[in-house]
Every structure is written in C-alpha cells, then in structure tokens.
Write a structure and sequence with these properties.
CATH superfamily of the largest domain: P-loop containing nucleotide triphosphate hydrolases
Bound molecules: adenosine-5'-triphosphate, magnesium ion
Distance between the termini: 23 Å
Number of helices: 9
CATH architecture of the largest domain: 3-Layer(aba) Sandwich
Helix content: 25-40%
C-alpha cells in the first residue's frame, strides 16, 4: 500500500469485524511475479471491492488466501476479536471452517451432481471431512432443507430439482453454496459475470442483506457499476500489488486508475 484515504494502516477493524492481514505475500509463475504485496488488510469495512486490469493478480491473491494456490513467501492471518489464526499454515479445508469462504471466477462442475446434492454436499463438507459418507443423509436435508429451498425460490432455476444448466445458474449455485457455509468473510471472484442485469441486482440485494447481518464481502468485479454502488472501500490492484485504496469516488477519479484501467472518458 502506498497511498490511503482515511484508513488506518492495517490494524483490527473497529467494531470487531474479522479481518485478513496479508504480509510479505509473493507468488511467481516461472519468472513472472504475479503477486507481491508488502502489507494489506482486507475485511475492515463491510464491503470491499478489489479491482484492476486483467492479469493484475486478483484471482491469484484470493487463491493464496484460501491456499488453493501456495504462496512463495509471506503470511495470511485471520484476526477475529482477540484471536489470530495464521491461515497460511492451515490446510485449505480448515480455512472455510474458520469463516473465510470463496466463490470461483470460473465455475466448477459439480461432477454430475444435482442442484440439491451439490448444496447438501457443501453443507456436509463444513461438518465432515469425508462428506461422501454423510451428504445424502437425512439430517443434512432436515437441518438445511428449508434454507436451501428459500434460496432456490429466490432465483428462477430452469430445473430446480435437477441440474444447473447455464453458466449463470452455475454462478448462482456457487454463491448460494458459499452463503450456506455462513461465512464471516466472503470472497467473491466475479460473481455476477454472465448474469443478466436483473439477476445481478437480485444477487447484490441478497448479499446486502447478509452484510446487514454481519457478513463481510471482498468482491472482485469488472462490472464497475456493481463495484461503485456496493463497495464501502475499493482496493486497486496492478501488477501484483494493491497500489491504491479508498472510497469508490476517490478510486474512480484517481488518475492512476484511469490510466491503468478505466481509460480516459470513463470518469
Ligand atoms: N496457474 C498459473 N500458471 C501460470 N500463470 C498463471 C497461473 N495463474 C495465473 N497466472 C498468471 O498470473 C497473472 C495473474 O493472473 P490472475 O488470474 O490472478 O489475474 P486477475 O487479476 O484475476 O485477472 P482477470 O481480471 O483477467 O481475472 C496472469 O498473468 C496469469 O496469466
Ligand atoms: Mg481473475
């Protein structure tokens, strides 16, 4: 971080919100350094946007936090109330159970599972490391069936009792899967890409409701209307580092953001 806009550098968020502290985090693929962050705190504000040009390292940063990609150097720490847990020392499946959950930019195929089975599996995975043993069991459906149905009622899946078909349906399913895990901090990687505008608005409304209940969101999006309208603070990433952060109006008007990302005439 080289510049700020009214934020204390690092530190625990006031009001007890869990935060993710990133220190000395680097990742290279071959001779290309794609993430190189000295210090960054995510999650201090309820909704934080993470934007930047293609290839800036946004997805890689999120994958490093979740440990779906291994860092070369550095630490990622979850600071939650008085507890500090070094996520970068944990196996990936433990990270979700601590309340840090991520959607995927490219939706994963749920290997032939129906909508219901994929959601039941997500819930079961939270409670058991051998989910195949339990996910069909009645108690998972009994404890979470109503909640799953309420999500499925909210969105018009073409075949709610069958499979997700379009990319948009798979994206929605991924967001619902994450929300069922009751995250403290939800990392969203282009959650509305490929969704029609009205469904995008529905997803954002649903996320706003969760944020009002205490969940924090870190969202990567190229749909900047979503970013400007939804974020409390925006981090601007370029060439592997977050080089600016501030409120949406500040970032939107900043000459570096215009030059490296938005292009003139955008503001
Ligand atoms: N597994 C990998 N192997 C090699 N290079 C990779 C790998 N994953 C990412 N990269 C490279 O790292 C750089 C950063 O990629 P990343 O996907 O993190 O960018 P991004 O900011 O999410 O971009 P976009 O906005 O296009 O999604 C890119 O140059 C990409 O080609
Ligand atoms: Mg990406």
């Amino acid at each position: 971080m080289s510049e700020g806009n009214g934020r204390a550098p690092g530190g625990r968020a006031p009001g007890g919100r869990a935060t993710i502290r990133i220190s000395g985090l680097t990742k290279s693929f071959g001779d290309q350094t794609v993430v190189n962050i000295d210090e960054l705190v995510l999650g201090a504000k309820p909704v934080e946007g993470l934007i930047g040009p293609n290839g800036a390292g946004k997805t890689t940063l999120m994958r490093l936090i979740m440990r779906s990609t291994k860092a070369d150097t550095g630490t990622v720490t979850l600071e939650d109330g008085s507890s500090e847990v070094m996520l970068s020392k944990l196996p990936p499946h433990r990270i979700a159970s601590l309340g840090v959950v991520k959607t995927n930019q490219v939706t994963q195929d749920f290997a032939g599972l129906t909508i219901w089975d994929s959601l039941l599996l997500a819930v079961a995975q939270r409670h058991d490391e051998r989910p195949h043993r339990v996910y069909r069991e009645r108690h998972v459906r009994e404890s979470h069936g109503e909640e799953i149905r309420s999500y499925l009622d909210l969105f018009e899946f073409s075949e709610p009792e069958g499979f997700a078909h379009s990319t948009g349906e798979k994206k929605l399913l991924d967001v619902i899967r994450c929300l069922l895990l009751k995250p403290k901090i939800l990392l969203l990687d282009e959650p509305t890409a490929g969704l029609p505008d009205d469904v995008t608005a529905q997803v954002i409304d649903m996320l706003r409701a969760k944020v009002a209940e205490g969940m924090s969101v870190v969202i990567v999006e190229h749909d900047l209307d979503v970013i400007w309208g939804f974020s409390d603070v925006v981090h601007f990433m370029a060439e592997g580092d977050v080089i600016l952060e501030g409120d949406p109006a500040y970032i939107r008007a900043h000459s570096t953001v215009v030059e490296k990302y938005l292009g003139s005439g955008h503001v």
